[in-house]
Amino acid sequence: MGQPVRDYLLTLCVAAAVTYLLTGPVRKFAIAIGAMPAIRARDVHREPTPRLGGIAMFGGLCAGLIVASHLFNLGGVFELSNEPRALLSGAALIWLIGVLDDKFEIDALIKLGGQMIAAAVMVIQGLTILWLPIPGVGTVALTPWQGTLLTVALVVITINAVNFVDGLDGLAAGMVCIAAAAFFLYTYRLWYGYGIEAAAPATLFAAILMGMCLGFLPHNMHPARIFMGDSGSMLIGLVLAAGAISVTGQVDPDAMKLFEGSERQATHAMLPVFIPLLLPLTIIAIPAADLVLAIVRRTWNGQSPFAADRGHLHHRLLEIGHSHSRSVLIMYFWSALIAFGAVGYSVHSASMWIVLVVVFLSAVGLVLLLLPRFTPRAPRWANSLVPPRYRRRRRPLPEEDENTGSAEDTASPGSSGSPAHADGSPDDVSGTPAEAPAPVAHGSHLADESDRPPVAVGVSGVNGATAISTRSRFSDRRDAGSAR
């Protein structure tokens, strides 16, 4: 079987194109059926945005599987393995649950039960963990119950980790796309570097997952036109977990000839055996950490672990001072650093250089993360060196606002509900027009602004304009009757 790089690329492009083209009609459909929830306290967007983006992503998944089944180099995956059909069955079930939740807000426990059922469906059709390579012990065969429990746990953890991180525009889709790219490189090397054809289904799943995320991202970047919703976040989480389950336990140390050479070389060569267990955790390290911290935080505060709040990592980035787009890019950076660092360390012989690069990039990322905390501010004494007109105005205290408001009410007793002239100057209680101010003498703008009284509300200003508030910062430099 030849190296199907172009076949994988074609499958990726088809999944991306179908997802991209379906997202527009899906958005109109979501608006038509009212799948636009109201703004919640924890939301960061300001306008109601339609959900159900997972419908388009599910279409991309189906299109990718159909195209791959008709390609010469990838058709054997469907003939030798039932895992693609198991993935499609579990994905269809979790997608349906997500669509119902996007429209009707299903209870969290019901969604959790649906996630477990979807994982069980994949287990029944053969997509399960059969045995595990354990350091210092060797390969351990699992009983059917042990394999089922471990598979269900991995699926549920991955789905909820991706779902929890879906809080900013483009965040979940971008992070999962990065994870899928790292996973694709790892499984592709297993297949063609070590000749392990059992890694072929996981490689196909990773390629299709990349296409789904890339096709949806243009519609979901800030400001997002549509959200993927639970129908999308749970779907891509399940596909990511399915790839990890498919390749876990499929690496044979004897077939890879790992015990040749020195002990150090053999130890480093054993990393690909253990990386199927570690790579899913490194890929979802940030979402998983956010999930654990959220559960601990809510339980400590006496809340339900499924209660929503604004304590997620992406919310903390916004509170530090990062913008929406910068927060997303920071999360991208850390996800790529952890995922590709783990893959590079496992497959590259120069492991020490990989560690040094990861440490250096971690330091750079930490500086970027904390940069808003160290924004320099001018000392108070420097304010005296700034000309008065360019100084920052002190925010008035509440007592000053009340005094200003009472003065304005006294200055314009007939401003509420009183008729106004065509030139905009209101009448007073007696029906007599308000007295116009004295004309401004030419060159008076050279005088000190502090000597000029503020223009009160309801008094006709230059060119018939009516002042709506005090204007003590800038003086009007135009003479009466001057053109704009």
Provide structural commentary.
The chain has 484 residues and is mainly α. It folds into 2 domains: 5-354, no CATH class; 377-484, no CATH class. It contains 16 helices and 2 strands. It has helices spanning 5-32, 54-69, 75-80, 83-104, 108-124, 144-165, 171-193, 200-220, 229-247, 263-269, 271-283, 285-300, 313-320, 324-347, 351-370, 398-411; strands spanning 131-134, 138-141. The protein has a two-stranded antiparallel ribbon. Strand 1 (131-134) and strand 2 form a beta hairpin. Helix 2 runs antiparallel to helix 4. It is globular, with a radius of gyration of 32 Å. Mean pLDDT is 74; it is low at 258-264, 406-436, 440-450 and 454-484.
Protein traits:
single chain; 484 residues; mainly alpha; 2 domains; two-stranded antiparallel ribbon; 16 helices; 57% helix; globular; disordered C terminus
Number of strands: 2
Strand content: under 5%
Biggest sheet statistics: 2 strands, antiparallel
Cα Rg: 32 Å
Give a nutshell description of this structure.
By secondary structure, the chain is an all-alpha fold. The chain is 57% helix and 2% strand. The chain folds into 2 domains: 5-354, no CATH class; 377-484, no CATH class.
Topology:
Blueprint: H1 5-32, H2 54-69, H3 75-80, H4 83-104, H5 108-124, E1 131-134, E2 138-141, H6 144-165, H7 171-193, H8 200-220, H9 229-247, H10 263-269, H11 271-283, H12 285-300, H13 313-320, H14 324-347, H15 351-370, H16 398-411
Antiparallel strand pairs: 1-2
